[in-house]
Amino acid sequence: MSLEILTFSFMHRALISGVAIAILCSVIGLFLVLRRYSLFGDAIAHSSFGGIALGLMAGVYPLWTAYGVSIVSALIITKIKEKYDISGDAAIAVLLSSGIAVGLVIVGISGGFTIDIFSFLFGSILLVSVNETILILSLTGIILIVVLLLYRQLLYSTFNEEQAKVSGIPVEKINYLIVFMAGLTVVTSIQLVGVLLISALFVIPNVTAIMYGKGFKTTAILSISFSIFSVVTGILISYVFDITPAGTIVLLSIGLFGGTMGIKSMGLLSKN
Amino acid sequence: MLSVVEIEHLTVQYPDVKALDDVSFTVKKGDFLGIIGPNGAGKSTLFASMLGLHTKYKGTIKFFGKDIRKSKDYLKEIGYVPQKPIFEKNFPATVNDVVRMGLRKESDANKIDEILQQLWIHELSKKRIGELSGGQQQRVFIAKALVNNPKLLILDEPVTGIDQQSIDLFYSILRELNSKQKITIIWSSHDLDAVNQLANHVACLNRTLFFHGESDEFFENDELVKQYSEASMQEHMHHH
Question: H-helix or E-strand containing B3?
Fold first, then answer.
């Protein structure tokens, strides 16, 4: 692999944004996975498709409308789930299909699929602009600060909601906060892997890290490391071999998952 | 003597059944109250109401002199140990992580170590919670309840499914917390012998409160003891 590619400024932006998104998805994804909400990222991403189509039709920067639509629909579905006692997976299914349905109808009205829509479906990290990089870094910074400040409350309400409530933690507010942060994270990450593969970044590095049998902080650090490795290596390999970055990144993280399962089944992962 | 808990005319009506009917009692500072009654007697409803998890009740519940409908601050002063804590078996949290979860500020690390030692789980602190036995997990949750310096401990039948050795250790810990550290304890149990040994007050609950008073007074009343041991036994057999 030639080192020349590391001198391109688009590659700098792609790698910097990619690393930020990798960290963000690992951290938010860990809480979602542990809450048995693994597919929630997928559902928000699909609903953002409706937002993207809306933005493209209205001539607005599509990610802005995607942020709006995703966050609002994620909060609404959480409220509905709470109020009508619908199970998490059913709520996710409703959110997922309504986003795609709205998107398809809007795309139909505005004249069919275009190259823009494909770049949102499958990601376009090599095309990320300076402004988008700044936006990605700022959101990553803000969300990570919030997570660090509320780390123990987030962890406790994820571990056992009832006990957290009894210890005086405002669990409902924390739940909405997680959903809100997940919405921001998903739309921010669309540029890296696209709408269709987002849940891979949320879920795979985390389930891999959990298999190592460590405590919470070590698990989070492992997950972030796996994620950064997949994203950086994926972007570089995909450029050199001219293949899609999104698919490469996800396949690399699946490789790490498979490798970890292999190590574990050989009994090489000791229990502490 | 200061009242820690005052419950007045507590009634909880579910759609098909009245779970609690006009229950009133008071718990004073330093009391060790054992609540006994068969399954379905309303103990869980009583605890859920006291802990603010169930809010559709009639009557008044006061902690430390204040109505719990007005403020949830009282929750910071109590430690709660659930019957069987539910969590994902593979949850990536060590004993250390679990004990520190939800703490508002970094507690004194020495104090946490001391509590872990007192409960004989110090050596397990780096193990994942899911790898421990039921008895060990139960002690972790007591440790967790103690790190906030609670004035009151509430324990919901906390020995269900735990081996006898762990139960004995658990009882000696409770006795010490109450007698040496003067922590008020409210404890629901099926085990009349244990209540006899540990508690200084007894409440018999079966939808309504049939008895509330000194432990000696209860255990001298053969009729009540017979009724409650039979009721518990029947429920126990039925349960299995």
Answer: strand B3-13
Higher-scoring residue by pLDDT: B170, B30: B30
DSSP one-letter string for B106-137:
---HHHHHHHHHHTT-GGGTTSBGGGS-HHHH
Largest CA distance in chain A: 58
Looking at beta carbons, which residues of chain A come within 8 Å of B127?
Answer: 271-272
Ordered domains of chain B (ranges, CATH): 3-239 (3.40.50.300)
The answer to whether residues B163 and B139 touch, using CB atoms and an 8 Å cutoff, is no
Specify the length of chain B in residues: 240
Cα–Cα distance measured from residue A167 to residue B102, given in angstroms and rounded to the nearest whole number:
8
Q: Model confidence over A230-242: pLDDT tens digits?
A: 999 999 999 999 9
DSSP class per residue in A137-167: HHHHHHHHHHHHHTHHHHHHHHH-HHHHHHT
A21-265 to CATH, choices 3.30.465.10, 1.10.3470.10, 1.20.1560.10, 3.30.10.20: 1.10.3470.10
Q: Residues A12-35: pLDDT tens digits?
A: 999 999 999 999 999 999 999 999
Q: Do B53 and A168 touch (CB under 8 A)?
A: no
Q: Do A272 and B87 touch (CB under 8 A)?
A: no
Structure tokens at A219: 């698990």
Q: A214 by DSSP, 3-state: which?
A: coil
Q: Name which of A206, A216, A217, A218 to mutate to probe chain B: the one with the most chain B Cβ atoms within 10 A of its Cβ.
A: A216
